Amino acid sequence: MKNLGVADRVLAMLRIRRFEEQCIRLSAEKKLVGHYHVYIGQEATAVAACTLLDKDDFIFSTWRNHGHLLARGADPRRMMAEILGKSGGYAGGRSGTLHLSVAALGAPATSALVGGNLPLANGAALACKQRGSGMVVNFFGDAGMEEGAFYEAMILASVWKVPILFLCENNSIPPALRKRGQFTSSTLPAKQLVDVPKSLNIVTEIVDGADADALVECFTRLTAEIRSGAGPRFVEVRCTRWPGSFPLFPELPDGEWQVAWAFGQKPDRQDLAVWLEHSDPLLLHIRKAVASGELDRSQVEAIDAQVRAEMAAAVRFALDSPYPDPQEAYRHVLAQGGQTR
Ligand SMILES: Cc1ncc(C[n+]2csc(CCOP(=O)(O)OP(=O)(O)O)c2C)c(N)n1
Ligand SMILES: [Mg+2]
After folding, report:
1. What is the pLDDT of residue 1?
2. How many domains does the chain have?
3. Whole-structure pTM value
């Protein structure tokens, strides 16, 4: 990971975790209105991928975009304001959570359509190739592979040899199968997801999404190959859904994530305890760093205090930000005669 030590990596993952806990709290209080998706349990993937990117690179994301954008450097205050539909948000409250994007950070579009961002990302990768700089990381979920747009993007990327990492976050994998064995999605007839891009001559990898070090190692290698002009790469990141994401609206199964859980204390809920033990990249990474002597408990607590303060400030900023003036709805839209106001 580019210039990220263990402490910075924990900080980056914890920022995403605590940001989304605030989303869940605000939703329960009816201050965040409507549907939204959390990235809890997948944080290591965004952090490992985005910290390898340069200014002129791009990411393309989905409805599960909070982690990708925070890892790319977005300001949590403006993100939270956008999610609440407030004028202080990145799009003045127009996009909400589902279309959150920050063009200035090389995150020009988030698609809420399954598979919808693949052709866009591929086009950006073609632009990178033509201008001779930059690459694209295209985040999408495993269901994206069931869309026609996926095949269009794979074929063109392979033929054009564009600089793109197709990063499939397969969050439906049971822990025991994350590292080994064959696992198909419910509807693809391929033995493994990677067999599909492989058949189109795209080099593929499978990596454990609960292992931050493995992700860093894998993405470092793949992005170097892509930057050297070798063409597209496809990676299946295998992760396991967090128990709090199963209800229609996410919930915190046992309250907020506790630093103490990384130091032997167990939550009350059994399903959460099992998930933490086997599948939480944040907890597993902290445990590993403590075991190797790179971090101690007081350092983790200090990181947590810093993150909590930052996220409390983000919530305050978003709640204090006014809703947009209704007239704003007419801006940036095509009016009669093709003129914009
Ligand atoms: C074209 C299209 N069809 C259906 C939906 C409804 N939908 C939203 S999320 C989702 C499942 C996505 O699964 P996956 O790609 O694995 O991502 P995950 O939510 O598991 O991260 C579906 C079917 C949609 N948004 N777009
Ligand atoms: Mg999925």
Report:
1. 45
2. 1
3. 0.96
